[in-house]
Design goal:
Layout lengths: L1 H7 L2 E4 L2 E4 L8 H21 L7 H53 L3 H13 L1
Antiparallel strand pairs: 1-2
Length: about 130
């Protein structure tokens, strides 16, 4: 799909002007969504015009553009979700490490005076 787009030197109309296929990756999600909606609308309008004739080359190109915009959009959405999951996991890990540290400190607090002195002596001899 991307090879075909590059061979055809597809350009996508956007609020920033005409973009090459690789420029789609620079758009944010809302811009990609707007572009995909616009292309889908163009596809629907061209399909409603005449059911007796085969797809025109223009319709095929519009369909390719839509597929590309949708693919980039879905990929960027998946990457965003992955980043959010990683961040949530990182925060959860930090929380668990903090709780673990408090529990370890609580265990130390519960040691007897003799156990603490013994640990200090062991550390001094090392």
């Amino acid at each position: 799909m991307f090879e075909k787009a590059s061979r055809l030197k597809l350009r996508f109309a956007s609020s920033k002007g005409y973009l090459a296929t690789e420029d789609l990756w620079d758009l944010n999600l809302s811009q990609l969504n707007a572009m995909a909606k616009s292309l889908k609308k163009q596809l629907k309008e061209s399909q409603e015009e005449d059911f007796l004739t085969e797809k025109s080359e223009e319709d095929s190109i519009t369909e390719l553009k839509f597929d590309l915009a949708l693919r980039v959009l879905k990929t960027k959405l998946a990457e965003k979700k992955d980043r959010e999951n990683k961040e949530a996991n990182k925060l959860a890990k930090e929380k668990y490490l903090s709780i673990l540290e408090r529990k370890q400190n609580a265990e130390l607090e519960n040691m007897s005076k003799e156990e603490i002195l013994q640990k200090i002596k062991e550390l001094e001899t090392k």
